[in-house]
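Supplementary Text 2. Reproducibility record for the structural model of the 170-residue chain.

All settings were left at their defaults, and a single model was retained for analysis rather than an ensemble. We include the record here because the model underlies the residue-level annotations in Supplementary Table 4.
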Amino acid sequence: MDIIFECGECGQELEVDEAAAGSELICPTCRNEIIVPEIPAGTITEIKEPRPESSSPVLPRIEKPPVAKEVAAKLSVPFSAEPTKELIKKPNKPLEVAAKDDERVIRVKTIRRADCRELERDNFDDVVTQFLQKVGQEFIIAMHPVSYSTVDSVSQKLIDDYGLMIIYRG
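Retained model, structure tokens:
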């Protein structure tokens, strides 16, 4: 059986299970702290005929129970040690889209040496090696060295640097 009562601050009608009688909660409308009232004897009335505007089951109602003002919110969040389950699975791609995805198009990747520095350590060779292994030797079309100038963020001077432009099928 549910307890139906109103917030004393904003008048919002609230409905909770009778097991929550006497517990504390926060009104979702005005954020006022309230206590779920106890069920006074003789205040529950059951409606025996369903209401014409609703086809839902009829619930017993409490006629204007008292509402307390001082309350603290006690909320609990469910926790599970198991990994979450995938509830909605993505559909497979249509055959036309899958066929287009298999065709490898020509792409270009430029790796700048300035982007490969970490704490005064030059990782340019490692970054290039990782990229080439990821793409695969059979898909590399060409590799061209490039020179460029960039502004040093500390000294605000122009610095000449180099990089590598890789053309591949991907």
